Amino acid sequence: MSTLGKIVFEIAITSPYGQRLTESNFVSFTYAYYAQSHVRFVPSRCQHGEEVAKPVKSSPVKPRSVSNSSPGVDIDIEGSSPRSGDNKKNTCPICFKSVIAANIDYHVDNECSGPPETGIRSQSPQVGTKRSTQPSQNSPESKKMRSFLRQASQDTLDLSKSNGKFIPSPNASTNQTSTQDSKKRSIQNNVTKAMPLAARIRPNAIEHFVGQEDLMGEKGTLRAFINSNRLPSMILWGPPGSGKTTIARLIASMVSARCIELSATSHGAADVRKAAEEAKNHLTMFGQKTIVFLDEIHRFKRDQQDLLLPHVEKGTITLIGATTENPSFKLNSALLSRCRVFVLNRLSEEELYQIVARALTVWRSEEGEGAESDEISDEDKEALLQLAKVSDGDARTALNILDMALTLLPSPSSHLTPENVKAAFQRSHLLYDRNAEEHYNIISAMHKSIRGGDADAALYWLGRMLQGGEDPLYVARRLVRAASEDIGLADNTGLQLVSLHAMAAYQACERLGMPECDVNLAHAVVYLAEARKSVRVYKAYNKVKSTIASEPNLPVPLHIRNAPTKLMKCNGNTQDLHYGEGYKYNPDYDEPVDQEYLPEELQTKKFLDVD
Question: In the UniProt record, does the keyword ATP-binding occur (predicted)?
């Protein structure tokens, strides 16, 4: 279809102006469109009761006059001559003069004087339908209409007749196509340049994907599913920049399924329902399944996750969820049990180097400074290796740093240096989320390092927390706990000192805050790590908790019950409850007192082990 034909079709069918199209100017639209595409139009009724043009595919036919006897009108344009006997008039699409409908083709060929200087006429005779309001001259519809009609006029006046057929001027068509292609390339280039480097070099073929060999390699589990075209619903769990989104998009492009991409940060329950309904209809009509890629799925609330469950269970959709959080903590167990969990690892330095090296060659090819296959120079290689080392296995971080470093180069042909990378690399945060799994992992690592007596490791994990923005009071509370749990009874006098150090660190955090209290915490950590250890009390109390959980609530023996009233005490009355009866007050005896303190069922139970 020609460009002019597309414009006519768009206006006549989809635009607000086209929906107001009436029988009087319908012929004009048909003529202009037919001149380019040889497609006949017949008017039909739209949902609002107004006549609107609908296309009917046809090959060129012999000329015949416009028929007024039926609601559908076939219009033929080629080789017509003036006709008489029908006084019904229409508007010329070029000069806007009122012309007898039967003579419209002759008028355009021989009498039309071209478009007027003023805009589109707002009125025209109408037959057989109610008068509809035309768009104003300053409205977007009128501007679009005037632009189309001027182009239609130019194309029509440039045409030459050959055997009654219209032949557009080759120069006009070629120039128009060339101009449009140039505009499209310009727009595409502008859009591409505005994208971050990480988005521009995202792999669109599995051969360009780097990392996760156990999943996406030649013998990878996930690749086997892709090759078999039998994809299960899955959760991709991995750290930032490990390739979760890229894998999901590669899957969507490689399997024979329709894909809908959502993000839990910007979509909600309504979007999930809409996607599920579309997937159901698409499966019913075309027999093709739909992949729903849900990024940051852990941000969905439990009730939002429940919306996915029936559609995943029935197979209406194939869910691919991406998350940086442990799915066993963040996802409903019912949904998790119906999905395969694939764990993505942090990228190695070698894999990161491959990614940033390809990004550099692509960037230079875009800047016109070499082909994408050019080798990396030694100067560039040194800088890229340093970049891969400081990126913590995060490809997105590495590419963002590279993007910034490249903007610091004097010219695209300049070599990248370690100094450029260092200038672009400003570590504003560490991989530490106070509300996520890493929060618990690192505090656990510090506590276990203290228990194991490794002061160096304990200091390192303390630093990871404090530099990552952890609340120092949280760390101090854990140190107070460790003082009793791990040092315990190893040294009774030492326990007081240990507890004193821990509490002093806690008070320093309360009164000083960060960064002044960091040394106080470090002092307490080292003291606890190097102190003698005993977990006797800790183990004993764990046994107590286990016994309480497994045994019924046993009654307190009568002789050790509290007896504050006469009714409870033993006074020789039959109504006495005998609380405290037979109790031996230990200070009254010089020798050890033989007396049971546990319930009868637990009298043989020992909680404290002998050191």
Answer: yes
